[in-house]
Amino acid sequence: MAAGVTTRTNSLKRKAATQENLGADQQPPRKLAAIAEADTNQPLRPSKTAPNSTNNTNGAGAGPSKLGRGPPPLTKPRAPTLATSTSTNAVRRTTRATSAPPKTAPVRPPARPMSRTTWVARPGASTVNDERFDSIQQQIAKIEAARAADAARLDAELAQERAKRSDLQASHEALSRELTNAKTQEIAQRQELFIASDELNSLRQRHEREISEMQADLRRKDRELRELNEDLRMCQADLERERDTVKSLKATIAQQATAQLSLTAQLGALQAEKAAVQAEFDRTCGSKADLALQLERAQKRIADLEREAREGESVRRKLHNMVQELKGNIRVFVRVRPVLRSDILSTTFNLSAGSAGSITDGTGSPDPEEEARMREEAMAQMAFPDKMDHREIVLKSSSESATGQERKDEWQFTFDRVFEPHSTQAEVFEEISQLAQSCTDGYNVCVFAYGQTGSGKSFTMEGGSSDATAGMIPRAVEQVFRVADELKSKGWQYKMEGQFLEIYNETINDLLGKGEFDKKKHEIKHDPKTGRTTVTDVNVVPLASATQVRTLLALAQGRRTVAATLMNERSSRSHSVFTLRIRGENALTGESCEGSLNLVDLAGSERLEKSGAAGDRDRLKETQNINKSLSALGDVIAALGEKGEGKGDKHIPYRNSKLTYLLQNSLSGNSKTLMFLNLSPLATHLHESLCSLRFATKVNNTTIGTARKQTKHTA
Ligand SMILES: Nc1ncnc2c1ncn2[C@@H]1O[C@H](COP(=O)(O)OP(=O)(O)OP(=O)(O)O)[C@@H](O)[C@H]1O
């Protein structure tokens, strides 16, 4: 739009310039030209071109009215009337009839009259013609007179018109000047307008620029405001934290002030003490000779104390072993294992197939409440009333007599220690650790686990693979190594070796050997002089560390004969005997000792009908051999008991089984023996548990004599 305005403005400017260049005199309006033409005797006609010409000159849409201040339009000049009288009209008609109406009206000289000789050529008609000629002449004269009058009048009118024309010309010039002035003014105004419009545009642009700058500024300010708000919020949080810190610091300062006061008091006391000590120090450091004497005395005292410590250790060990011996040579520990998930499963299957639905094979996750209820149901009625010394176990049963009356039975047993189902391997070992330790003092120690299949004998003796579930064998060996290490400072050096045997169907197998089982004949030999028992052709492995023993146990486990029975899917149908032999020498005291630790995992003690072996010849033979060796063990213990009661010549039937013969030196009065009685907690095994408890009571009541240490003095 601005471009349109500019274009129009430019054309106006051009026009104004052109008119200026031409000047008012050089280019008169066309209307004036028409008037000028009339000067050449043309009749005056109204000129319509003048206004149009003006309009055209002003251009389309740019007429004076549009400019607003142009001169008023020129009035149309009225054409002068040629004649008003009738005669004049008649003359004009006549004139027109004789000649074409002139565009211009020149005053022609009067037409020359025809010569009379022309008319006289015909003598007959000459009178008529003369008359006619005269009348024509008269008419002509009249016409010429009229014409002369017209010419005079026209001249007058022309003069008037000329006067008018000059008036008009004057007024036109005035108007032209006015127009020029108006145009000049208009151009000036237009220039002003252009300048103003340019200014307006530049102002608008500047304004827009300023607005966009202000908007950007506003946005920046907004962002800054947001950032400031965030800063403010963080500052407030910081301030809050700082206030808390200040509060806690004030509390700390208060505490510190209190502490400082007490410290100042303590400092005063310490300074006083220091002064006293300084005085004492000054007194005691009187002379160098005194100090040297004191040092010598102190060194002597240290040597005395070390000797006393060694003697004290010997006394402690003597006393310790005495205490162990006073406790009885065969001690019996009872351990009841917990109810296993597999127990519930088998019991539930026995009771009803449907109720086993919520118990899985141990890999699933049954309802814990349901499982606890089932455990409770499966468990035999057992009580452990002695909460102090843990020595009692009570078994109860209720049944219906033949007469239909309810019969309640209760059996109470007392042993050296009773372990409840929740007892851990560590708790159990704590009780036997001193016993295991005494083999480093030169004693023969025998620990065996007795109980029906699946009662937890192998778990107690060998245990699981983790540290928490490790059984008595690895723990005892670790303990022996630890004690041997501690005794190094007292001059003792130990050598250890181990063997692991299995007695299956009265045949000895080497669990650490490489050959096939039952192929080699192994014989048991006792040396009456040394009291040492050896087995021919078995691997005796020197032991350097406790971890090595775990490897041996794993090797033996793989070779051990395991046969499935109804009682336990991992049922061991053989006795296993792990023997750790230890020899120690003391270079300082000249003492030497030799002890052994036998850890025996006996085969299941259940009766024939319970084991489910009655229908299988091999199983039957196994069970018979197991029962034979276990009853031989009972006989040996009974005989030892009788011997201990004073029947000195009592024969001890060691040779009745390979087991008792192998353990002869560990069961005789020279050794310390401990029996673990492992019990199943299940109600279905109550009868078997009672048999085991009765056997263990017999063993517990047996006194087989005082254990003897196998030591020598070389010095
Ligand atoms: N105190 C206990 N805590 C947890 N589980 C035990 C415990 N005692 C035994 N068990 C588990 O009971 C099952 C039977 O135990 P174990 O094999 O030791 O019986 P066993 O008397 O040695 O049987 P066998 O005479 O056939 O060798 C095993 O799965 C064992 O892990």
From TrEMBL:
<dbReference type="GO" id="GO:0005874">
    <property type="term" value="C:microtubule"/>
</dbReference>
<dbReference type="GO" id="GO:0007018">
    <property type="term" value="P:microtubule-based movement"/>
</dbReference>
<dbReference type="InterPro" id="IPR036961">
    <property type="entry name" value="Kinesin_motor_dom_sf"/>
</dbReference>
<feature type="coiled-coil region">
    <location>
        <begin position="151"/>
        <end position="252"/>
    </location>
</feature>
<feature type="compositionally biased region" description="Pro residues">
    <location>
        <begin position="103"/>
        <end position="112"/>
    </location>
</feature>
<dbReference type="InterPro" id="IPR019821">
    <property type="entry name" value="Kinesin_motor_CS"/>
</dbReference>
<comment type="similarity">
    <text>Belongs to the TRAFAC class myosin-kinesin ATPase superfamily. Kinesin family. KIN-14 subfamily.</text>
</comment>
<keyword id="KW-0505">Motor protein</keyword>
<feature type="region of interest" description="Disordered">
    <location>
        <begin position="1"/>
        <end position="126"/>
    </location>
</feature>
<feature type="compositionally biased region" description="Polar residues">
    <location>
        <begin position="82"/>
        <end position="98"/>
    </location>
</feature>
<feature type="compositionally biased region" description="Low complexity">
    <location>
        <begin position="49"/>
        <end position="65"/>
    </location>
</feature>
<dbReference type="InterPro" id="IPR001752">
    <property type="entry name" value="Kinesin_motor_dom"/>
</dbReference>
<feature type="domain" description="Kinesin motor">
    <location>
        <begin position="329"/>
        <end position="702"/>
    </location>
</feature>
<keyword id="KW-0493">Microtubule</keyword>
<protein>
    <recommendedName>
        <fullName>Kinesin-like protein</fullName>
    </recommendedName>
</protein>
<dbReference type="InterPro" id="IPR027640">
    <property type="entry name" value="Kinesin-like_fam"/>
</dbReference>
<dbReference type="GO" id="GO:0003777">
    <property type="term" value="F:microtubule motor activity"/>
</dbReference>
<keyword id="KW-0547">Nucleotide-binding</keyword>
<keyword id="KW-0067">ATP-binding</keyword>
<keyword id="KW-0175">Coiled coil</keyword>
<feature type="compositionally biased region" description="Polar residues">
    <location>
        <begin position="1"/>
        <end position="10"/>
    </location>
</feature>
<dbReference type="GO" id="GO:0008017">
    <property type="term" value="F:microtubule binding"/>
</dbReference>
<dbReference type="Pfam" id="PF00225">
    <property type="entry name" value="Kinesin"/>
</dbReference>
<feature type="binding site">
    <location>
        <begin position="451"/>
        <end position="458"/>
    </location>
    <ligand>
        <name>ATP</name>
    </ligand>
</feature>
<dbReference type="InterPro" id="IPR027417">
    <property type="entry name" value="P-loop_NTPase"/>
</dbReference>
<dbReference type="GO" id="GO:0005524">
    <property type="term" value="F:ATP binding"/>
</dbReference>
<feature type="coiled-coil region">
    <location>
        <begin position="288"/>
        <end position="322"/>
    </location>
</feature>
